[in-house]
Amino acid sequence: MVRNRDFYRIYSTFHRYIRNNFLKIGFLVIFAGLLSACENSATETKNKEEGKHVHFLYNFSTNSLDPHVDSSYVPLRAGITETLVRLDEKNLTIKPWLAESWEGEDGQHWTIKLREDVKFQNGKKMDAKAVKASLERALKESVAVKNALKINNIQADGYSLHITTTAPFPEFVSELVNPNVSIIDVTEGDIIHKPIGTGPFALESFTPGSKLELKRYNDYWDGASKLDSVTFSFNEDANARSLALKSGQVDIVYRPEVESLETLKAMDGIKVESTATFRVHQMTMNMQRKSLKDVNVRRAVDALIDRQKIVDTILLGHAEVAQGPFLPSLPFAPKYENSQMEKGADVAIKHLEKAGYKLKDGKMKKNGEPLKFTLLTYSARADLPLIAQVFQSDAKKIGIDVEIRQIDIPEEYMASNRDWDLATYSNLTAPRGDAGYYLNATYHPNGALNFSGASDPKLTAIIDKLNQTVNQEERATLSEQAANYINEHVINSFVLHPSTIVAYNEDKVKNWVTTRSEYYMITNKLDVK
């Protein structure tokens, strides 16, 4: 019998080989049909054995489940771990989760009252001592968490935490929404492969890069799930994800292939949801590279990006053209003037001429040296390599050679290597309903996602002031100032705001919610009909 992950690997290999060999399509259909029949039989048998079961297929794989450093946030998304507070996506505010309440009038000395009815999945109580140990481990393991939380001292007293930050930091509690601040029992031995959290599902087994098998945690504080088990599997091939749903191997698919959406919609029992999120696809610029130190070159790169064509042809309309990092509907998103949106090859050439470049013998040159870019991209988000190809094609028309380099884990590569100029990258910009997260992470010199190497004293000063401001109107003003500064100096370029697309078997799945934050997926409310 063929297992799920074997099927995905076999299909992905055949798909790449056969895509341009149309005479062999008949063989592919027969091959897929045979495997599908085999898989369906195995799935039905498994469901009968396990009771109420849901199989969720995600687009990013991971080899580690350590919630304090895992950049894919799988432990929280899979319902294993939880944070002290969570995002209220309807009102764009934070609300209690493992924490019951909090106070910190001066913005520096905080008291957090914990729920007293929470147990870890090993039966131990989640008291202040356990939470303190979890937070201190997160601070130790992750520089990004340390920089984000700015914690100086933590004291535990029964079910109360007393936390002092290094300076007044009014938005401290909102940073506790971060999945990398998930609360776990740190006394357990193998946190990488089997973290023990407080969520509705306990980890039964983990196959790195392939899948998690989860079972219901019966003593879950917010009410045990009606599901007996969940399979949370990975496949970074969008074609394979779509086929898996079509053939009934999985019940829910995150980010199916865009080209397959009409086919999925036409199938009986399949529901397709497209939800606007707090995400932006951006062109990250390595400002440590010689050519990109010139703002006119960066403006030329920005002008070359044909945003509307990308939205229409690659995302098939399931996105919104980006004017800046934040969705226009957010209260802190600037209102851009039309002059700021002038784009196209002619505009790019004018910027390059200001930088001293001229188009000669079909090549854009300065002092005899041709302008070249190395552009990073990654396939886990299927639209990013296509965006890279569109840019490569448009750049070639004005004499710029672009080498596209595929990487696996963008955060690791960009943080460790500086041998690149540009990168197509997707970033959550307001997952807590506030601009502070993105601005600190991406543009502050200490930011965990500051891959551009931005270190601008004026921008840093705006961000530091934002971090100490409580009033929401003042915060919105400062956020606008920062976003305008970023656009004016082209510290990264923004392409589009993609919708999150999820497809699932609505004849079976009950209470699935596609969230804007992309944090909360496998919950205790998820059920089957």
UniProtKB/TrEMBL annotation:
Top-level taxon in the UniProt lineage: Bacteria
Pfam families linked to this entry: SBP_bac_5 (PF00496)
Keyword Membrane: yes
Keyword annotations: Membrane, Signal, Transmembrane, Transmembrane helix, Transport
Domain Solute-binding protein family: 93-448
Record's signal peptide: none
Official protein name in the record: Peptide/nickel transport system substrate-binding protein
Taxonomic source organism: Priestia endophytica DSM 13796
